Amino acid sequence: MSETKDALLKDGAGGATLSKTLIDLNQSAVARYLQLATLFRKRIVNGEWPVGQQIPTVGELAEECHVARMTIRQALGDLEAEGLISRARAKGTFVIAKPKRDLSVKLQTDWIGVMVGPRNATIEVIGTARGQMLRTYEGEEGIPAPEYRLVRRLHSRNGKSFLLADLFIDERIADAISQEDLVTKTAVKMVADIPGVEITDVYQTLTIDTADLEAATLLGMPLNDPVALVQRVAVDKNGTILLVADGLYRGDMVHMEMKVK
User: Is the full-model pTM beyond 0.85?
Assistant: First the structure.
């Protein structure tokens, strides 16, 4: 496990969850250029800077954004590395492509969907922690278990990460989940397949947010790009919350369909 991933989870009540780190634009040069790269990328996506058009000069952008020219060059360097712009001496900088948007992951809203999950997905466990308190659930359904096992998983498809998930599993049943289950099954199915466990209700909520530095790093996406935070809560017949699964999906790789009639 890499140092970056290893630092994500800590034992005890202070264990990490999906953080909401706020990056101050004035905190460091790195933070400034990352945020500016995101701003410029969005201008290309929404057509403000259309493909084929010359964008403002480094000096003009520096004056507009109130930053040093070097910071603008760093931000544009990111876009150039992604193949979105082309810079030519004495000619200027031109938009040559839009960011690819691969809406290949469908958010499921029915029982079969949460049991099956996305096709051809690879799941990697990147951290675990025992003896955790349930900190991320604010709903009124169910009664929390005494302690939870926290499992962090990274879901990918064709080598591209699309989902970072924190699973809080009732510690009393966590040992019944095999290592194979952890890398092959959806969170709800892992719990539902435990002998003697009966899930009677599953609640799901969706919140739109932006990627913090940690999520952007693990999901390989721009800082502050849209993410969908999906929380699934599984409750048994006694009203005990067996599972809280917090899934952070890349906004550019997910879509949701809901039948309204």
Answer: no
